[in-house]
Fold:
Amino acid sequence: AKKLRSKWALFNKSHANDEKGQQTLRYRSELSEALAEQQIKLFYQPKVNLTSGKIVAAEALARWQHPVDGMLPPLLFIPLIEQSGKVREFGRYVIRHAIKQLSIWKTQGIMVPVAVNLSPYNLLDPDIVSYTQELCEKADIPPNMLEIELTETATSLHLHTISASLNRFKEIGVSISIDDFGTGMSSLAYISNLNVDTIKIDRSFISDIETNSSNLSIVTSALNLAKAFNCTVVAEGVENLEQATLLNKLGCHYGQGYYYSAPVPADKFTALLKFTPTLPVS
Ligand code: C2E
Ligand code: MG
Ligand code: MG
Ligand code: MG
Structure:
Protein backbone atom coordinates (compact mmCIF):
# COMPACT_ATOMS: atom_id res chain seq x y z
CA ALA A 1 0.00 0.00 0.00
CA LYS A 2 2.84 2.30 0.86
CA LYS A 3 4.42 1.64 -2.49
CA LEU A 4 1.15 2.33 -4.22
CA ARG A 5 0.64 5.51 -2.32
CA SER A 6 4.08 6.80 -3.25
CA LYS A 7 3.45 5.92 -6.86
CA TRP A 8 0.24 7.88 -6.69
CA ALA A 9 2.05 10.76 -5.08
CA LEU A 10 4.56 10.70 -7.87
CA PHE A 11 1.81 10.66 -10.46
CA ASN A 12 0.11 13.49 -8.68
CA LYS A 13 3.26 15.49 -8.56
CA SER A 14 4.23 15.04 -12.16
CA HIS A 15 0.81 15.37 -13.70
CA ALA A 16 -2.42 16.41 -12.06
CA ASN A 17 -0.98 18.80 -9.52
CA ASP A 18 0.97 21.16 -11.64
CA GLU A 19 -0.72 23.62 -13.87
CA LYS A 20 0.90 22.34 -17.01
CA GLY A 21 -0.37 18.87 -16.30
CA GLN A 22 -3.88 20.22 -15.84
CA GLN A 23 -3.61 22.08 -19.09
CA THR A 24 -2.42 18.95 -20.86
CA LEU A 25 -5.39 17.00 -19.53
CA ARG A 26 -7.74 19.75 -20.65
CA TYR A 27 -6.23 19.94 -24.13
CA ARG A 28 -6.40 16.18 -24.43
CA SER A 29 -10.10 16.22 -23.56
CA GLU A 30 -10.73 18.97 -26.11
CA LEU A 31 -9.06 17.23 -29.04
CA SER A 32 -12.14 15.51 -30.46
CA GLU A 33 -13.99 18.80 -30.54
CA ALA A 34 -10.97 20.55 -32.06
CA LEU A 35 -10.95 18.08 -34.93
CA ALA A 36 -14.73 18.02 -35.36
CA GLU A 37 -14.90 21.82 -35.42
CA GLN A 38 -11.86 22.20 -37.64
CA GLN A 39 -10.01 24.27 -35.06
CA ILE A 40 -6.78 22.76 -36.30
CA LYS A 41 -5.66 24.78 -39.31
CA LEU A 42 -2.95 24.23 -41.83
CA PHE A 43 -0.51 27.08 -42.29
CA TYR A 44 1.75 27.07 -45.33
CA GLN A 45 5.43 27.81 -45.57
CA PRO A 46 7.02 28.40 -48.96
CA LYS A 47 9.70 26.13 -50.30
CA VAL A 48 11.86 28.41 -52.40
CA ASN A 49 14.30 28.10 -55.29
CA LEU A 50 17.41 29.67 -53.75
CA THR A 51 18.63 31.08 -57.07
CA SER A 52 15.45 32.83 -58.18
CA GLY A 53 13.72 33.30 -54.83
CA LYS A 54 10.59 31.87 -56.44
CA ILE A 55 8.18 29.66 -54.53
CA VAL A 56 8.20 26.10 -55.82
CA ALA A 57 5.99 24.38 -53.24
CA ALA A 58 4.22 24.77 -49.91
CA GLU A 59 4.65 22.82 -46.69
CA ALA A 60 1.49 22.46 -44.62
CA LEU A 61 2.11 22.93 -40.89
CA ALA A 62 -0.65 22.38 -38.35
CA ARG A 63 -1.69 24.93 -35.73
CA TRP A 64 -4.48 24.61 -33.21
CA GLN A 65 -6.50 27.80 -33.15
CA HIS A 66 -7.67 27.24 -29.60
CA PRO A 67 -10.87 29.17 -28.80
CA VAL A 68 -9.50 30.35 -25.44
CA ASP A 69 -5.74 29.99 -25.50
CA GLY A 70 -5.00 31.19 -29.02
CA MET A 71 -2.68 29.55 -31.48
CA LEU A 72 -1.01 26.40 -30.18
CA PRO A 73 2.07 24.96 -31.91
CA PRO A 74 2.16 21.41 -33.27
CA LEU A 75 4.85 20.24 -30.88
CA LEU A 76 2.39 20.93 -28.06
CA PHE A 77 -0.66 19.08 -29.38
CA ILE A 78 0.68 16.42 -31.73
CA PRO A 79 2.08 14.34 -28.85
CA LEU A 80 -1.40 14.51 -27.24
CA ILE A 81 -2.95 13.29 -30.48
CA GLU A 82 -0.51 10.41 -30.48
CA GLN A 83 -1.31 9.53 -26.86
CA SER A 84 -5.05 9.72 -27.47
CA GLY A 85 -5.21 7.17 -30.27
CA LYS A 86 -6.18 9.85 -32.78
CA VAL A 87 -3.12 9.63 -35.01
CA ARG A 88 -4.97 7.94 -37.81
CA GLU A 89 -7.83 10.42 -37.70
CA PHE A 90 -5.40 13.34 -37.60
CA GLY A 91 -3.28 12.05 -40.48
CA ARG A 92 -6.39 11.82 -42.60
CA TYR A 93 -7.54 15.24 -41.40
CA VAL A 94 -4.28 16.81 -42.58
CA ILE A 95 -4.38 15.04 -45.96
CA ARG A 96 -8.03 16.02 -46.44
CA HIS A 97 -7.40 19.67 -45.62
CA ALA A 98 -4.31 19.84 -47.83
CA ILE A 99 -6.27 18.41 -50.78
CA LYS A 100 -9.09 20.85 -50.08
CA GLN A 101 -6.58 23.70 -50.25
CA LEU A 102 -5.11 22.33 -53.47
CA SER A 103 -8.55 22.38 -55.01
CA ILE A 104 -9.21 25.94 -53.80
CA TRP A 105 -5.94 27.01 -55.37
CA LYS A 106 -6.84 25.13 -58.53
CA THR A 107 -10.04 27.16 -58.92
CA GLN A 108 -7.85 30.27 -58.65
CA GLY A 109 -5.56 28.98 -61.38
CA ILE A 110 -2.76 28.26 -58.90
CA MET A 111 -0.81 25.02 -59.14
CA VAL A 112 1.57 24.65 -56.24
CA PRO A 113 2.57 21.28 -54.81
CA VAL A 114 1.76 20.80 -51.12
CA ALA A 115 3.80 18.76 -48.65
CA VAL A 116 2.18 17.29 -45.56
CA ASN A 117 3.92 15.94 -42.48
CA LEU A 118 2.82 12.48 -41.50
CA SER A 119 3.48 10.51 -38.38
CA PRO A 120 5.02 7.07 -39.01
CA TYR A 121 1.89 5.56 -37.51
CA ASN A 122 -0.11 6.98 -40.41
CA LEU A 123 1.81 4.68 -42.69
CA LEU A 124 0.66 1.71 -40.65
CA ASP A 125 -2.91 2.67 -41.60
CA PRO A 126 -3.52 0.16 -44.41
CA ASP A 127 -6.03 2.41 -46.17
CA ILE A 128 -4.13 5.69 -46.05
CA VAL A 129 -3.07 5.46 -49.68
CA SER A 130 -6.48 4.58 -51.09
CA TYR A 131 -8.01 7.28 -48.86
CA THR A 132 -5.64 9.83 -50.40
CA GLN A 133 -6.18 8.56 -53.90
CA GLU A 134 -9.98 8.74 -53.61
CA LEU A 135 -9.90 12.30 -52.26
CA CYS A 136 -7.59 13.36 -55.07
CA GLU A 137 -9.90 11.80 -57.63
CA LYS A 138 -12.98 13.47 -56.17
CA ALA A 139 -11.25 16.84 -56.09
CA ASP A 140 -9.70 16.29 -59.51
CA ILE A 141 -6.22 16.89 -58.11
CA PRO A 142 -3.35 14.83 -59.51
CA PRO A 143 -1.67 13.01 -56.59
CA ASN A 144 1.69 14.29 -57.81
CA MET A 145 0.67 17.65 -56.32
CA LEU A 146 1.09 16.02 -52.92
CA GLU A 147 4.27 15.26 -51.06
CA ILE A 148 4.78 13.42 -47.80
CA GLU A 149 7.36 14.45 -45.22
CA LEU A 150 8.50 11.81 -42.83
CA THR A 151 11.07 12.24 -40.09
CA GLU A 152 14.12 10.06 -40.26
CA THR A 153 13.47 8.46 -36.87
CA ALA A 154 10.07 7.49 -38.15
CA THR A 155 11.61 5.16 -40.65
CA SER A 156 13.14 2.89 -38.02
CA LEU A 157 9.73 1.67 -36.80
CA HIS A 158 8.07 -1.15 -38.68
CA LEU A 159 10.32 -0.50 -41.62
CA HIS A 160 8.70 -3.17 -43.72
CA THR A 161 5.13 -1.85 -43.41
CA ILE A 162 6.23 1.74 -43.73
CA SER A 163 8.19 1.13 -46.88
CA ALA A 164 5.24 -0.77 -48.37
CA SER A 165 2.96 2.24 -47.79
CA LEU A 166 5.57 4.63 -49.11
CA ASN A 167 5.94 2.57 -52.26
CA ARG A 168 2.20 2.60 -52.79
CA PHE A 169 2.19 6.37 -52.34
CA LYS A 170 4.96 6.60 -54.91
CA GLU A 171 3.03 4.40 -57.32
CA ILE A 172 0.13 6.85 -57.34
CA GLY A 173 2.54 9.75 -57.86
CA VAL A 174 2.98 11.17 -54.34
CA SER A 175 6.59 12.07 -53.63
CA ILE A 176 8.44 11.37 -50.40
CA SER A 177 10.76 13.58 -48.36
CA ILE A 178 12.89 12.67 -45.39
CA ASP A 179 12.41 15.49 -42.89
CA ASP A 180 14.93 16.75 -40.31
CA PHE A 181 17.67 14.85 -42.10
CA GLY A 182 20.74 14.36 -39.96
CA THR A 183 18.98 14.25 -36.61
CA GLY A 184 17.73 10.68 -36.71
CA MET A 185 19.48 7.53 -35.71
CA SER A 186 18.66 5.53 -38.78
CA SER A 187 21.17 4.14 -41.20
CA LEU A 188 21.90 6.04 -44.37
CA ALA A 189 20.87 2.93 -46.27
CA TYR A 190 17.25 3.85 -45.55
CA ILE A 191 17.56 6.62 -48.06
CA SER A 192 18.03 4.09 -50.82
CA ASN A 193 15.74 1.41 -49.37
CA LEU A 194 12.88 3.82 -48.98
CA ASN A 195 13.24 5.25 -52.45
CA VAL A 196 12.87 8.86 -51.34
CA ASP A 197 12.74 11.86 -53.65
CA THR A 198 13.95 14.60 -51.34
CA ILE A 199 15.99 15.04 -48.21
CA LYS A 200 15.41 18.04 -46.01
CA ILE A 201 18.49 19.00 -44.04
CA ASP A 202 17.53 19.83 -40.49
CA ARG A 203 17.71 23.44 -39.53
CA SER A 204 20.16 22.75 -36.67
CA PHE A 205 22.84 22.28 -39.36
CA ILE A 206 21.83 25.38 -41.27
CA SER A 207 21.48 27.91 -38.45
CA ASP A 208 25.24 28.45 -38.07
CA ILE A 209 26.52 27.09 -41.35
CA GLU A 210 28.45 30.32 -42.06
CA THR A 211 30.63 29.85 -38.98
CA ASN A 212 30.43 26.20 -37.94
CA SER A 213 32.78 24.18 -40.12
CA SER A 214 31.55 20.82 -38.88
CA ASN A 215 27.98 21.69 -39.85
CA LEU A 216 29.30 22.86 -43.20
CA SER A 217 30.88 19.41 -43.67
CA ILE A 218 27.66 17.67 -42.67
CA VAL A 219 25.69 19.68 -45.21
CA THR A 220 28.31 18.96 -47.88
CA SER A 221 28.12 15.22 -47.13
CA ALA A 222 24.34 15.27 -47.24
CA LEU A 223 24.51 16.95 -50.63
CA ASN A 224 26.91 14.30 -51.93
CA LEU A 225 24.73 11.54 -50.56
CA ALA A 226 21.68 13.06 -52.20
CA LYS A 227 23.50 13.27 -55.51
CA ALA A 228 24.43 9.59 -55.28
CA PHE A 229 20.80 8.67 -54.69
CA ASN A 230 19.40 11.16 -57.16
CA CYS A 231 17.49 13.09 -54.48
CA THR A 232 16.59 16.74 -54.34
CA VAL A 233 17.83 18.62 -51.27
CA VAL A 234 15.96 21.26 -49.30
CA ALA A 235 17.67 23.25 -46.54
CA GLU A 236 15.40 23.95 -43.57
CA GLY A 237 15.58 27.09 -41.48
CA VAL A 238 17.29 29.50 -43.89
CA GLU A 239 17.24 32.75 -41.97
CA ASN A 240 19.51 35.08 -43.92
CA LEU A 241 21.00 35.85 -47.31
CA GLU A 242 24.47 34.62 -46.32
CA GLN A 243 23.08 31.14 -45.62
CA ALA A 244 21.09 31.11 -48.86
CA THR A 245 24.14 32.17 -50.88
CA LEU A 246 26.43 29.62 -49.26
CA LEU A 247 23.92 26.80 -49.69
CA ASN A 248 23.39 27.65 -53.32
CA LYS A 249 27.15 27.70 -53.90
CA LEU A 250 27.39 24.24 -52.33
CA GLY A 251 24.78 22.95 -54.77
CA CYS A 252 21.70 23.03 -52.54
CA HIS A 253 19.10 24.72 -54.69
CA TYR A 254 16.02 24.76 -52.47
CA GLY A 255 15.36 26.18 -49.05
CA GLN A 256 12.74 27.14 -46.53
CA GLY A 257 12.99 29.53 -43.66
CA TYR A 258 12.10 32.80 -42.04
CA TYR A 259 14.32 34.67 -44.52
CA TYR A 260 11.64 33.94 -47.12
CA SER A 261 8.59 33.53 -44.94
CA ALA A 262 7.32 31.94 -41.76
CA PRO A 263 4.36 29.56 -42.19
CA VAL A 264 1.28 31.68 -42.98
CA PRO A 265 -2.47 31.10 -43.41
CA ALA A 266 -3.53 29.92 -46.87
CA ASP A 267 -4.82 33.31 -48.05
CA LYS A 268 -1.53 34.97 -47.08
CA PHE A 269 0.32 32.24 -48.95
CA THR A 270 -1.77 32.99 -52.02
CA ALA A 271 -0.69 36.61 -51.72
CA LEU A 272 2.96 35.55 -51.46
CA LEU A 273 2.57 33.58 -54.68
CA LYS A 274 1.20 36.57 -56.54
CA PHE A 275 4.08 38.89 -55.86
CA THR A 276 7.50 38.52 -57.37
CA PRO A 277 10.21 38.29 -54.75
CA THR A 278 11.79 41.58 -53.78
CA LEU A 279 14.32 40.12 -51.38
CA PRO A 280 17.88 39.91 -52.59
CA VAL A 281 18.51 36.35 -53.71
CA SER A 282 21.74 34.45 -53.76
P1 C2E B 1 9.10 20.31 -39.56
O1 C2E B 1 8.24 19.53 -40.49
O2 C2E B 1 10.57 20.09 -39.62
O3 C2E B 1 8.75 21.83 -39.85
C1 C2E B 1 9.66 22.88 -39.75
C2 C2E B 1 9.47 23.68 -38.48
O4 C2E B 1 10.46 24.70 -38.41
C3 C2E B 1 8.14 24.40 -38.39
O5 C2E B 1 7.79 24.47 -37.02
C4 C2E B 1 8.48 25.79 -38.91
O6 C2E B 1 7.60 26.79 -38.46
C5 C2E B 1 9.86 25.98 -38.34
N1 C2E B 1 10.67 26.89 -39.14
C6 C2E B 1 10.60 27.11 -40.47
N2 C2E B 1 11.53 28.01 -40.88
C7 C2E B 1 12.24 28.34 -39.78
C8 C2E B 1 13.34 29.23 -39.54
O7 C2E B 1 13.88 29.88 -40.45
N3 C2E B 1 13.80 29.31 -38.27
C9 C2E B 1 13.24 28.60 -37.25
N4 C2E B 1 13.75 28.77 -36.02
N5 C2E B 1 12.19 27.76 -37.42
C10 C2E B 1 11.70 27.64 -38.68
P2 C2E B 1 6.33 24.07 -36.51
O8 C2E B 1 5.29 24.56 -37.47
O9 C2E B 1 6.25 24.48 -35.08
O10 C2E B 1 6.32 22.50 -36.62
C11 C2E B 1 7.15 21.70 -35.83
C12 C2E B 1 7.07 20.25 -36.24
O11 C2E B 1 5.77 19.71 -35.96
C13 C2E B 1 7.26 20.04 -37.74
O12 C2E B 1 8.64 20.06 -38.04
C14 C2E B 1 6.62 18.68 -37.92
O13 C2E B 1 7.51 17.65 -37.60
C15 C2E B 1 5.50 18.70 -36.90
N6 C2E B 1 4.23 18.98 -37.58
C16 C2E B 1 3.73 20.15 -38.01
N7 C2E B 1 2.53 19.98 -38.62
C17 C2E B 1 2.28 18.63 -38.59
C18 C2E B 1 1.21 17.81 -39.06
O14 C2E B 1 0.24 18.28 -39.68
N8 C2E B 1 1.30 16.46 -38.81
C19 C2E B 1 2.38 15.91 -38.17
N9 C2E B 1 2.40 14.57 -37.96
N10 C2E B 1 3.41 16.65 -37.73
C20 C2E B 1 3.37 18.00 -37.93
MG1 MG C 1 8.27 18.99 -42.40
MG1 MG D 1 11.79 19.48 -40.86
MG1 MG E 1 13.42 20.36 -38.58
The longest helix spans residues 87-107. Residues 215 and 221 are 10 Å apart (CA to CA).
